Amino acid sequence: MQTSLKSNINSTLADVLMINDKGIMISVMGQDYFLSYNRVPWMKDATINEVLDVRMSGKNAIEWPKLDVDLEVDSLRHPERYPLLIKRNELDYVS
User: Fold this and answer.
1) Following DSSP, what letter does each residue of the chain receive, concatenated?
2) How far is residue 84's CA from residue 82's CA, in Å, rounded to a whole number?
3) From the CB of residue 16, how many other CB atoms can be counted at a distance below 10 Å?
4) Distance in angstroms (rounded) separating the CA atoms of residues 21 and 9
5) Local confidence band at 9 (pLDDT 50, 70, 90 cut-offs)
6) Which domain holds residue 9?
7) What is the per-residue pLDDT across 59-91, written as a single tens digit (0 to 9) for each?
8) Buried-most residue among 11, 26, 65, 90 (CB within 10 A)?
9) How far is Cα 79 from Cα 74, in angstroms, rounded to an integer?
10) Could you give the CA distance from residue 26 to residue 71 in angstroms, rounded to a whole number?
């Protein structure tokens, strides 16, 4: 029973507040963040069901399991420290 209670608590620590054509507003541990599709382009074509399925992944990250997306909470607080990089192959990074 503790496992289900813990799972329920973890799921309420990360919630989607709003989805619009510009991005997603989420609440993580009582702090609200706006994730622009410019910052997280892989979320733009996600279904509402996929986006709503967000939860804590440990104490320092959130995850969208249906999208295979994980974000560190620090990247929400300080996005300037986490430039968006796209890996095309093992030797190449594009920002």
Assistant:
1) -HHHHHHHHHHHTEEEEEE-SSEEEEEETTEEEEEETTT-GGGTT--HHHHH--EE-SSSEEEETTTTEEEEHHHHH-GGGS---EEEETTEEE-
2) 6
3) 16
4) 29
5) very low
6) 2-94
7) 899 999 999 999 999 999 998 888 766 555 655
8) 26
9) 8
10) 12
Q: Give me the amino acid identity at 58.
A: G
Q: Which residue has the tokens 């973890």?
A: 10
Confidence of residue 45 (pLDDT cuts 50, 70, 90): very high
Paired with 69 in beta bridges are: 64
Nearest to 26 by CA among 11, 41, 38, 6: 11
Burial class (CB in 10 A: 0-12, 13-18, 19+), 30: exposed
What pLDDT does 81 receive?
86
Model pTM score: 0.73
CB 53 within 8 A of CB 65: yes
